[in-house]
Structures are given as structure tokens and as C-alpha cells.
């Protein structure tokens, strides 16, 4: 059994892929080929924004956003304590300071109350200027933008949506990638829309920012590549990856529906043995992962060992809250309590999930989990 079954997805699209890749190889148009422009257009239409800039990774997409808005030394960037480090790493690289916020007990997304508390504390301390919020659609579930946006407005902060895990999800009928002032996503192979290597994109409706990022990601180009007007980076999506993504975009909505269907079965069978994912109100999740949370008294390591013994791959998303990572040792947490993110880190287990999980595989996973807890909680 695979944790995420990309091999079966490949079988489904292999014919289409082969002819697409043949074209790229025959045209020898590997960097910034026509396919990249076509992909950017289709992606913008899919997400419902004016502009997409394809780039080399989700991390680069975030870095380009921070660069475009001149975020740097002396700036505070707020983010949830439970996310992948890449949500704020590029801001740190540019000299800004991350300020971690507690997550919601149920959705694991950034908690609005904690966010506002942290903003007030930063202002009170007076050392940093609050600049931006990185709202992460954690595990594919949209953050609660109705709660977050008024806070961003009140303190005049940029709302960045980290939609790395949420392409295909929606909030009040609007697609993820269109929910903040600007958004970033990743096409890492295991994400809901993944390519066959690294890739990412920025989504925006702002023409000026689109122009700036279009320049920044190609060495700060001006009218041409050799007419440089600013210091930028080299971050492009390969033509080959664009063709792979165009093929996968055709089946994305169908895959998202299958994800919803499989998640419902897990929900029904595993609730209330374990804590099942809670989806934000009036939202649909892309279910980038299906992650369960055990009870604090359960032995998570023992459970994961049991799954491994029974050939059920599993991963912890993520085992460490950001404030406990060695790299952030000694960072100012402004006295915030991270009970929920610490608990989630300790007790979460991602179980096999993808649109290509078979009915038999899923039934087997469910049976084994039920069996384990019948014994363990006797
Ligand atoms: C994967 C991921 C990223 C980074 O994307 P890469 O393409 O791996 O650079 C950023 N944020 C979140 C929440 C992610 O899951």
C-alpha cells in the first residue's frame, strides 16, 4: 500500500503525458516555453484570479511575495505555529522576524484570537513593525478568512494565503489561492496538484505586483532578461513541469471529488475512535492528507509502530510545532501558549490517502485501526 499513490495516477494519465512530453522534447523549448504561459492562464482561470506567476517551488513563491512587498529587517510576519517551516522561512531569510500564533483546537488553522493577541503584543513591545500574516490552509482545509481579514484590515497587514496544500479546495464557493491579498502554492509531487519535481506559483489580482514578481523571478529583468532593473532570483517553472501540470489540471476536480468521498468514509468509520479532520464552516477541503489526532492518553508511537507492522504507511504532519524547532530556539514567543499545536504535533497521524486509494485498501486500514483501539483502550 502507498501512503499517496502517485503510481496509479500516472497509469491514468500516462498516454496524455507521453505525447505532451514528446512535444517538449522535440521542440527543445525547456525554459519559459509556451506551455508555461498556457499553464499560467489555465491556473489563473481555475483559481479565479487575474494573474498566475509560475516559479520553481512553493518556497520560492512565498519568497517572491515577501520580496515584492519589501518585507525585511524590522518586520514581523505572523504565522500559525503548526505548519511547514517554508511558510515563513523565506521571510526569515530576508531578515524579517516570524511571530508564531496558536492554532484552532479543531481545524488546526491559525487561531484568530491568538493572532490578534500577538499583533497587540508586538505593537506594545515596539521593536518590530507588524507587516504580514501567512494564513496556511492546513492539510488542504481553508483558514477562516472571514475571521482573519478584519484583523488584517484593523492593523493594516498584508494577508498572504499559503495554499500549498489546498489547490482544489474552496471557501464560500471561492477557490483557495484567491482568498488573501495574494497567495502562493506548491506543486511538490505529493500536493493535491503536483508535478514531477519542484514547482510553485503565485496568484494575484494586482497588476503592479504581477509585473514586479514577473521581473523578480527572472533576475529582476526589465524589458528583457539583459536589461535588469532590480536584484531578483532565478525561479522558473520548467516547460516539462508545465505540461505535466496541464495534464493533471484536467483531472483535478474529479480527483478532489474522490478525495471528498474517501474522506467521508474515513470520517464515518473512525469517528469517534480518533479525532477526525474538522473542516472550516462553508468550506471544502482538498484533503492534501487525511490526518487523525489521537487522544492525549493514547500512545502515538505504539500506534504508529502497529500500523507499520501491518504494512500501513503513515506519517506525522507535522511532529514539531515551529516554536520548538531547533532553528527557532530562544525566539520571542511573546508569552503565548501553544497547547493545541503541541498536542497536535504529539498526537497526529497521517494515514494512507489519495484519490487512488482502493476500496479494499481503505477497508483494511479502517479494520486495523479499529482493532488496535479495541485492544489498546480495553
Ligand atoms: C509544501 C509546502 C510549502 C513549500 O512548498 P515547496 O514547493 O516544497 O517549496 C510551503 N508551505 C506549506 C504549508 C507546504 O505544505
Strand content bin: 5-15%
Q: Bin the helical content.
A: 40-55%
- Gross morphology is globular
Structural class: alpha/beta
For this structure, the quaternary state is: single chain
- The SSE string, one letter per element, is HHEHEHEHEHEEEEEHHEEHHEH
Distinct compounds present: pyridoxal-5'-phosphate
Give me the side-by-side strand order of the main sheet. 1-9-8-5-4-2-3
Count helical runs: 11
End-to-end C-alpha gap: 29 Å
Average pLDDT metric: 97
- Major sheet summary line: 7 strands, mixed
Alpha-carbon Rg, integer: 21 Å
The unreliable regions are none
How many strand units? 12
What does this molecule look like?
By secondary structure, this protein is an alpha/beta fold. Helices cover about 40% and strands about 15% of the residues. It has 11 helices and 12 strands. The chain has helices spanning about 5-25, 35-45, 60-70, 90-95, 110-125, 145-155, 205-215, 240-270, 300-310, 340-345, 360-375; strands at about 50-55, 75-80, 95-100, 130-135, 160, 170, 175, 180-185, 200-205, 285, 290-295, 350. The strands form 3 sheets. Strands 1-9-8-5-4-2-3 form a 7-stranded mixed beta sheet, sandwiched between helices. α4 links the parallel β2 and β3. The mean pLDDT is about 95. The chain binds pyridoxal-5'-phosphate (PLP). Pyridoxal-5'-phosphate binds near residues 57, 59, 83, 87 and 162. Pyridoxal-5'-phosphate binds near residues 57, 58, 86 and 165.
Amino acid at each position: 500500500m502507498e501512503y499517496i499513490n502517485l503510481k496509479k495516477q500516472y497509469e491514468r494519465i500516462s498516454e496524455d503525458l507521453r505525447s505532451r512530453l514528446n512535444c517538449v522534447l522535440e521542440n527543445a523549448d525547456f525554459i519559459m516555453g509556451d506551455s508555461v504561459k498556457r499553464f499560467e492562464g489555465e491556473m489563473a482561470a481555475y483559481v479565479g484570479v487575474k494573474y498566475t506567476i509560475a516559479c520553481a517551488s512553493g518556497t520560492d513563491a512565498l519568497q517572491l511575495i515577501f520580496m515584492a512587498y519589501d518585507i525585511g529587517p524590522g518586520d514581523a510576519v505572523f504565522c500559525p505555529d503548526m505548519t511547514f517551516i517554508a511558510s515563513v522561512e523565506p521571510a526569515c531569510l530576508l531578515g524579517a522576524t516570524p511571530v508564531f500564533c496558536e492554532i484552532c483546537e479543531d481545524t488546526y488553522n491559525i487561531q484568530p484570537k491568538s493572532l490578534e493577541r500577538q499583533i497587540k503584543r508586538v505593537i506594545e513591545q515596539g521593536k518590530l513593525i507588524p507587516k504580514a500574516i501567512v494564513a496556511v490552509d492546513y492539510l488542504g482545509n481553508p483558514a477562516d478568512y472571514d475571521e482573519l481579514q478584519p484583523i488584517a484590515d484593523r492593523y493594516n497587514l498584508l494577508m498572504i494565503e499559503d495554499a500549498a496544500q489546498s489547490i482544489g479546495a474552496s471557501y464560500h464557493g471561492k477557490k483557495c489561492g484567491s482568498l488573501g491579498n495574494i497567495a502562493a502554492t506548491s506543486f511538490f509531487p505529493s500536493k493535491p496538484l503536483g508535478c514531477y519535481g519542484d514547482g510553485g506559483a503565485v496568484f494575484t489580482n494586482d497588476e503592479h505586483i504581477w509585473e514586479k514578481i514577473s521581473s523578480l523571478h527572472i533576475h529582476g529583468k526589465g524589458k528583457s532578461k539583459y536589461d535588469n532593473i532590480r536584484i531578483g532570483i532565478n525561479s522558473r517553472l520548467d516547460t516539462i513541469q508545465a505540461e505535466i501540470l496541464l495534464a493533471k489540471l484536467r483531472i483535478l476536480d474529479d480527483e478532489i471529488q474522490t478525495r471528498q468521498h474517501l474522506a467521508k468514509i474515513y470520517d464515518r468509520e473512525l469517528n469517534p475512535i480518533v479525532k477526525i479532520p474538522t473542516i472550516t464552516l462553508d468550506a471544502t477541503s482538498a484533503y492534501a492528507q487525511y490526518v487523525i489526532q489521537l487522544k492525549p492518553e493514547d500512545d502515538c508511537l505504539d500506534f504508529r509502530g502497529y500500523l507499520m507492522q501491518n504494512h500501513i504507511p503513515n506519517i506525522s504532519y507535522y511532529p514539531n510545532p515551529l516554536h520548538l524547532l531547533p532553528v527557532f530556539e530562544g525566539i520571542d514567543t511573546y508569552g503565548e501558549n501553544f497547547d493545541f499545536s503541541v498536542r497536535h504535533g504529539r498526537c497526529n497521524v497521517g494515514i494512507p490517502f489519495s484519490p487512488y486509494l482502493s476500496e479494499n485498501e481503505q477497508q483494511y486500514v479502517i479494520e486495523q485501526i479499529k482493532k488496535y483501539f479495541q485492544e489498546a483502550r480495553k
